[in-house]
Amino acid sequence: MTGPPDGYFDAASTEPLHPAARQAWLAAVDAGWADPARLYRDGRRARMRLDEAREIVAGVIGAAPAEVSFTGSGTAALQIGMVGCLRGRARVGRHLVASAVEHSAVLHTAQWHEAGGGSVDLVGVDRAGRVDPATFAAALRPDTALACLQTANHEVGTVQPVAEVAAAAGAANVPLLVDAAQTVGRFAVPDGWGVLCASAHKWGGPPGVGVLAVRRTARWRSPLPPGERESGRSPGFENVPAIAAAAAALAAVARDAAAENARLATLTERIRAAAARWPDIALHAAGATTLPNLVSFSCLYIDGEALVTELDRVGFAVNSGSSCTADTLRPSHVLEAMGVLSHGNVRVSLPRGVTESDVDEFILTVPGVLAKLRAIAGVEGL
Amino acid sequence: MNAAEDPALTLDVLGRLCPAPIIELAKNIGRIDVGSVVRVLADDPAAALDIPAWCEMRDQEFLGEDATAPARAYLVRRAR
Predict the structure, then answer these.
(1) What count of other Cβ atoms lies within 10 Å of the Cβ of residue B2?
(2) Neighbouring-strand partners of residue A10
(3) What is the CATH number of the domain that holds B25?
(4) Per-residue model confidence as pLDDT tens digits over A310-338
(5) How far apart are CA A293 and CA A208, in angstroms?
(6) Which of A237, A217, A224, A272 lies closest to A72, judged by CA?
(7) Chain A residues 324-353 with CB within 8 Å of chain B
(8) Where would I find the beta strands (DSSP E) of A203-318?
(9) ipTM score assigned to the predicted complex
(10) Could you say which of A323, A379, A382 has the minimum Cβ distance to residue B46?
């Protein structure tokens, strides 16, 4: 198996395509190209690929195949999932609860709901980015139509107490939408969700495939005009080759998850231990349970954009939550909710198959990069 | 929050983006006596996070925002 490109440390944005996905995609463009809704031979072949893919995904997330729909993206899954729940429970009320550190697709949908006359409560997090289940439970009201929580945070890696929040939501009769984008294929999803969303390119599938799973028992009403595809939950002709590729990648990464999680956790621990010795670093989510492949830290007096650019120049691709790297010129809403140092931020998210020597090279390289940037900025000794 | 603190020094970093406000604060805090207060006028949204975080890393005392200031402002007491 060929590994990810050297120095690519931005798996939380997108995981490089898994070799099993490429293989399945090529097979499906040859044998799964026809309309899966048609009854002739080539249509049935495409339908078989689609059904197989649905079964694989359903198996990994703990759903019935009929509960799983494929969308055009993870964002589309979140939008349709959220708005469908709010619509299905409009008689109960128009109150929405979500954590303050959800993916921007969730927060934008919440803002949109609020602009349309709904009400929204965002539940804050501690310094490590973790939601307190009791605080989340206290935000649920008799008129709460939907609660949303991520399985793990995409910027700092903090694992959220989904099982506890699901129990509280269940007790309050509020459906819980779980954004599992960062963990599907790594960990089993805790039970108790009403709607689950994920995105194939985060686990090594191709872009353009989202997963929207809606429990049979969930009060979900489509916000879209009627359609025949994907149980009416996602519009348009299914991208069967991409969906087949997504499922093949998921089967492969889920099979190897336990060993790869342990290996990646050793490597991120090595980065954390090294970063703790670098001068003037704020290591985020320290002490919290985090994703095995993600480390986030901020470097005092350093411009996040300059840091990303310099690391790229020396061969490392990382993302930053600093405001200077965002179009909005605001720091990441996650770092803001945590109340931590936001400038000079680096998110290292290791892809599956990353080599140990690549990580060691990064650990050797960063101190020199920080020293160089601090010298240019004239901040040494401050 | 302590609006009654009388700043010994005001730093105007309005219009400057992170990490410039923090660098200015770090460069200038030595100009005031230990126990005195510096006021930082900063409209960069990151300053709200970064000034308290800097205080923690440098063992300085973050007093909060100065509600009496004409622009967004933060108060820091030199603790050492």
Answers:
(1) 12
(2) A349
(3) 3.30.110.40
(4) 999 999 999 999 877 777 778 999 999 99
(5) 23
(6) A237
(7) 324, 329-331, 335-336, 339-344
(8) 210-214, 281-283, 294-299
(9) 0.92
(10) A323
Domain count across chain B: 1
The single residue listed with the structure tokens 């709460």 is: A144
The position carrying tokens 């790297």 is A325
Task: Give A124→chain B minimum CA distance, Å.
Answer: 15
Tokens of A270: 């090595």
- Structural domains of chain A, ranges and CATH numbers in brackets: 19-251 (3.40.640.10), 257-376 (3.90.1150.10)
Angle at A42 between CA A36 and CA A45, to 5 degrees: 65
* pLDDT tens-place string over residues A47-65: 999 999 999 999 999 999 9
Which tokens sit at A158? 């903090």
Active site residue A324: yes
pLDDT at B9 over 80: yes
Spatial CB neighbours of A145, under 8 Å, sequence gap ≥ 6: A85, A86, A89, A90, A92, A93, A94, A95, A96, A118, A174
Helix (H, G, I), strand (E, B) or coil at B62: strand
| Cα-only R_g, chain B | 11
Q: How far apart are CA A136 and CA A130, in angstroms?
A: 11
Contact between A221 and A92 under an 8 Å Cβ cutoff? The reply is no
Which of helix, strand or coil describes residue A315? coil
Domain that includes residue B42, residue range: 3-77
Does residue A326 or residue A274 have the better pLDDT?
Answer: A274
Looking at the predicted structure, is the pLDDT value of residue B3 above 80? no
